[in-house]
Structures are given as C-alpha cells and as structure tokens.
User: Fold this.
Amino acid sequence: MRTSLLEIKALETHLLKSGSPQDRLVMNARLLLSHDLRIDLAAQKASYELIQKYGRRQLREEIKAVENEVFHSGNHPKFMERIRRIFGLNL
Assistant:
C-alpha cells in the first residue's frame, strides 16, 4: 500500500478507536510530534462527520417517502387501519 493510504488507515484506526493499545499509543505520540498529522486527523474526522450526516439525511428522506406512500397515498388502507388500532392514532 502507498504511504498515504497507510497513513489514512492509521488515522482511521485511531478515530474508530480500534487496533491494539500499542498502536494507539504510537499514534498518540506521532500526533504529539506532528502538526501536519494533527491537521490530517482533523480533516479525516470532519470528512467522517459529513458522511455520517449525509447518510442520516438520506435515511430521513427514505423514511419520509415510505411514510407518504403508506399513510398519505391511500394505497394501503388495511395497513393504515391496523396501525391506527395498535397505536390509538387518528391519522
């Protein structure tokens, strides 16, 4: 693997708190010694957070689409009635 890919993998292991305690200790020492590595770690952490937010937004949109199909389209009246009875809702 190329050095940059190894570096990304090492940062990922650190961010996900996986790997051996020895590897985490070495990475902590490297982070203390290298300003550039700390910048790379921050960038990778920000990337992961953006990816997670995007995934959550996509999931919310999918759930809304299912909700609209099931509860607002009128195509599933028996299911709607069953849900109303289970939860005591007036949908």
About this structure: The mean pLDDT is 90. The radius of gyration is 23 Å. Residues 54 and 60 are 10 Å apart (CA to CA).
